Amino acid sequence: MSKVKVGVVQMSCTASKQENLEKAIAKVKEAAAKGAQIVCLQELFTSLYFCDVEDYDNFALAESIPGPSTDALSAVAKEAGVVIIASLFEKRAEGLYHNTTAVLDADGSYLGKYRKMHIPDDPAFYEKFYFTPGDLGYKVFKTKFGRIGILICWDQWYPEASRITALMGAEILFYPTAIGWATDQDEETNKDQYNAWQTIQRSHAVANGVPVVSVNRVGFEQDGAMKFWGGSFVANGQGKLLYLASHDKEEIEVVELDLAESDYFRKHWPFLRDRRIETYSPITKRFIDED
Q1: What pairing do the DSSP bridges indicate for beta strands 3-10 and 38-40?
Q2: Cα distance between residue 104 and residue 73, in whole Å
Q3: Active site residues per annotation
Q4: Which residues pair with 273 in a beta bridge?
Q5: What's the Cα-to-Cα distance from 102 to each of 52, 133, 233, 256, rounded to whole Å?
Q6: Distance from the CA of 112 to the CA of which of 73, 101, 187, 201 falls in 20 to 30 A?
Q7: Residue 276: phi, psi to the nearest 5?
Q8: pTM
Q9: Domain residues of the chain, as ranges?
Q10: How far apart are CA 213 and CA 199, in angstroms?
């Protein structure tokens, strides 16, 4: 099929894992009722963003994948006939945890998972304390409504990740994410940070000729020190914004994408064709210097 309708679910979270899961399920059903065929939830949607502190108790939030949350979402996917992209805290084994996204097809079947590759360690984003870097490589999932590539939050900043996923045949790139502003920052800094975040992802759409769907959370967390900035968006393969969410409201939006446009964009802006792949081997170095 050429055209597909993607559902963006931008929401706030509470300290109750069950409450967040039930809320997400209700919003997936609402998106499906509006015509969505693929619904993307935000990063770690079953909890508050707990990585602002290094606290061993937070590991209790993790679960197996497949597991309880994917079982519940699988039933919803089958009932509503939608693909669900679900970002979860994965317990792989004792003492081994990942930031992982599961993909459930429109018949409720579990298609697999992608484990976040790039793990940040910034003030208020202490993810290296919790998450082991992904070891499944980049992934593309063949769903009922198209081949989708999943990358997670910090992966957003890396053109290498989006390029590889697109080269694997992804027709749409999805980014579940959790990012926000420190509330003691000035407005100019806030604007610059958001613009950088949106710009880098739209550039992935342009460079690869595929749509990008980025889904972020909203709301104040971390005792008011962090305002998650929402701003979820959908861009086509030329980087054109087709939808832009607010910075402070929960939203459900359904956007139709024409996957046939990718062929048009790639023919007229032939960035894939013109890549000089024989010159790119130095990119595997940490830095290009005499050592």
Answers
A1: parallel
A2: 8
A3: 43, 116, 153
A4: none
A5: 23, 16, 21, 23
A6: 201
A7: -95, 75
A8: 0.97
A9: 3-271
A10: 13
* DSSP secondary structure string for all residues of 84-150: EEEEEEEEEETTEEEEEEEEE-TTS-EEEEEE-----EETTEEGGGT-PPP-S-S-EEEETTEEEEE
Cβ atoms of 170 and 140 within 8 Å: the answer is: yes
Q: Measured between alpha carbons, how far is 58 from 51 in angstroms, rounded to an integer?
A: 9
Residue with tokens 């027709």: 171
| Whole-number Å distance between alpha carbons of 249 and 241 | 19
Peptide bond into 133 cis (omega under 30): no
Measured between alpha carbons, how far is 191 from 113 in angstroms, rounded to an integer? 33
As assigned by CATH, the class of the 3-271 domain is alpha beta
Using alpha carbons only, give the angle 83, 85, 90 rounded to the nearest 5 degrees.
135
pLDDT digits (tens, 9 = 90+) for 212-235: 999 999 999 999 999 999 999 999
Who's near 228: CB < 8 A, 6+ residues apart?
A: 12, 49, 178, 179, 180, 216, 217, 218, 219, 220, 221
Note the pLDDT of residue 123.
Answer: 86
